[in-house]
Each structure stands twice: as C-alpha cells, then as structure tokens.
Amino acid sequence: MRLLRVCLLASLMAPALLSADPAAPVPAVDPPARTLDELLARVRAAHSGSASADVAREKVFVEERERQQSRLDAARLELAGASQRASSLEQRFESTQRTLVSRQAELQSRLGALGAVFRHLGEQGAELQPLLRDSAISTQVGAGRLEALDQLLQDAASGERLPRAEALESFWFELQRELAESGAVRRFEAPVRAPDGSDAPRSVVRVGGFAAIDTAGHYLLYRGEDARFLELPAQPDGDIIAVAADFAAATEGVQPFVLDPTGATGARALQDAIAAPGFGERLSAGGLPGWLALLMGLAGAALAVWRLVHVERWNTALRAGVPLPADHPVMQLRAVAAAHPTLDATALEHLLHEALLRAMPAIEFGLSALRLTVTAAPLLGVLGTVSAVMHGGVPGQPFDPETLLRALAATVEGLAAGLAVLLLQSLLAARVRLLVHALDQEAAALVAAAAIGDTP
Q1: Which of 113, 231, 315, 346 is most buried by a 10 A CB count?
Q2: 48 class by beta-carbon count within 10 Å (0-12 exposed, 13-18 middle, 19+ buried)
Q3: Which domain holds residue 222?
Q4: Residue range 343-360, pLDDT digits in tens
Q5: Are residues 94 and 153 in the same domain?
Q6: 410 and 290 in one domain?
Q7: Residue 315 counted as domain residue
Q8: Are 302 and 267 found together in one domain?
Q9: What's the domain count of the chain?
Q10: 388 vs 385: CA distance, rounded Å
C-alpha cells in the first residue's frame, strides 16, 4: 500500500518537474498531502484551474481574430474608395490638361502678331536689364526703373498676359533716359567706399556712363551689385588727377578729361594703365643679368660711336681732299715712301705692306670688343631668364604666367643690347672697310709712282 502511494505521487509530480524552467524562480511548495483524499482533491483542483485557463485563452484568441478581421475589412473598403477617387482625379486631370491646351491655342490665336511683338520686347528688355543694372546712371536716378523692367520682362516671358501700357511707356522712357544721360555730365551726392573700407557721402561727377570722379579728381569704380561707387585703390599719374580735378571744379565751357571707353563699371583700360609697370620697373625685372647686359650694351654703344666718329673723320678728310692730319694712316704710308726714295717698287711694296699691317690694329680698334658684346649680351639675358624660372617655379604647381613674363624681361634686355651694338658694329665695320680700301689704293699709287721713277 505504501509503495502504491509513492508511485502515484511520482507520476503526479513528474510532468511538473519536466516542464519547469531551470532558470525560473522556484515557487513556494505546498506541504505534502497527508492522505490520498487530500492528494486527489489537489489533483482535481489543478485540473479544473487548467481547463478554466484554456477556455479563457481561447476566448481571447477568438475575440482578437474578430477584431483583426474587422480591421482588414475596413482597410479593404478604404483602399477601394481611394482607388475610386484616384481614378476620378486622373480623369479630371486629363480633362483639365486638354482644356489647358485648348485655351493656350486659343490665346495664341487671339494674340496673333502681338505675340511676336512682345517676344521681341522681351528680348530687348533682357538686353537692356544688365546694362541698366551696371550703369552708373542708376545710382543717380534710382533703382525703381529696374523693378518696372523686371515686371515687364515677367509679363512678356509668361506668354499668358499682356504687358500693361504703363509698363511699355516706362520701358520706352528708361531707354530714352539712358541714351540721354549717357551723353551728359552730372553732379550729385552718392555714398563712396574708400580703399580702407569706410563709406562716406561725396560729391560725384559722372561723365555719361563712362567715368565717375570725386571733387579731388579721384577716379571711382561703379559696382552694380549693390549700386555703390568704389574709389580705385591706385590712381593714375598726378597729371591725369590734376586734369580730372580741374574738370570736376569747372561749371561751364569745354574742359579736357581722360576718359576710359570701357565704362565706369569695369574701367579695365584705366586699371590696366595704372597697373602697367613703369620703365624703371621693367628694367629691374631682368635682375642682375639684365643690368649687366644693359651695361655691356651701353659700353659697346659708346665705344662704337667713339670709333665711328674717329674713323669717319679720316674718311671725310680723304673725300674732301684737304691736307691730312699727321695721325692719318695715309700720311703714315706717305711717310714710309718719303723715307725710302731710292727703293725699287718691289721693296717699297713690302715696306708699305708692313706699314699697313702696323696701322690695322689702330684702324680696327674696338671691333673685337663689339663682336664679343653682340654675343655675350643676349647670352646674359638668357641666363637671367633661366635663373628666374628656376627660382620662381614651385614644384608640383602650375607655373605663374607673371613670373614667366618677369623672367623674360632679362632676355628682352639682352637681345635689345645685342641688337643695338650689332647695328653699330656693322656700321663701324663698313666704314673701316672703306678706309682700308682707301689705304690699299694709296699704297698701290705709291708703288706705281716708285715703279715709274725706276724706269729710265
């Protein structure tokens, strides 16, 4: 009997032990049943509680399934309604699109030739708009004309409405005013920004749309983005500033003025003239090799001129037939012939040839130095250019064009010096050859006279 109780208890506790989670907390254990009746009552109560829980869970599942089904039915109904509305809207869009195309065609047919007129007006207005925006006249007359022009361009570009008569009159008036003011000189007050960034009102004199100056003669640059005058950071030479100041102070009559034809907006010609390097800066750009080439060229030119004057004096005396000076090469030949009156023609010819050879260094003095200068000056210029390029370039970066232009200044100086000396050297060599030819003729005449004197 006791064995039967143990087996029954083991069979009841085994499912609970197998289904229990080892990690879950262990619930409180009821005290063991004392009798079989008490054990049976506990088993019956546990079975009844499990059946009730199953029924409750089933009920909850059925209710949740019914709610999900109702939601699905509502979503299907909403999808059907949205599809119907989308189809209706698509049909309405297509109908409206067809109506719009028809209305546009009707509008174009009613416009007729006016459409071409307004298109042409829009093109002209589009060309006039940047001119007015960048014109210095807009600062004086105000920026309201730009707003009217913008509205006119919008009406002309839309193609759906006609520009108003007031807009057309405003366009015509602004065009005529721009033409009239472009040939007038006006004085008015306007804010001017100094090179240090400060703004102050000044009395501005506008010369058409081409230039603007203040009362001190300083040239102003007009910037159309914010309708403001800017004082140029670098001004022209003092003479030009003085002329501009006199022009600004004048109230009548015709006055001289230096005008930039590119206009006051860019003033490119004026700024380029201001930024252009002077003669001294151009010479300094060549560096030491350039200066050496110029000095060599000046020395060679001075030597060539001095020798030209000396040689030409000898040639002039020969052509004029006047008594020759004692240092003349011809007189040296005649002195040799006079010193040996008894020599025959052959011996005299040898003596005259020796005398001519002794006179040649004095006659050709300077030609070798000039030839050296003609060769060395360009080479010095090239050396200066190569040196400037080597020291001015940065590895891994594009070469600066301004650096290249400054480097080429040395080559220009060397070529200029060499070319000038070459011309003078060629002229001197020609005059020397003329003198040598005259000496040859004189020697031949002396030899001939000696030969005639030996003949009995």
Answers
A1: 231
A2: exposed
A3: 186-276
A4: 777 887 788 888 888 888
A5: no
A6: yes
A7: yes
A8: no
A9: 4
A10: 5
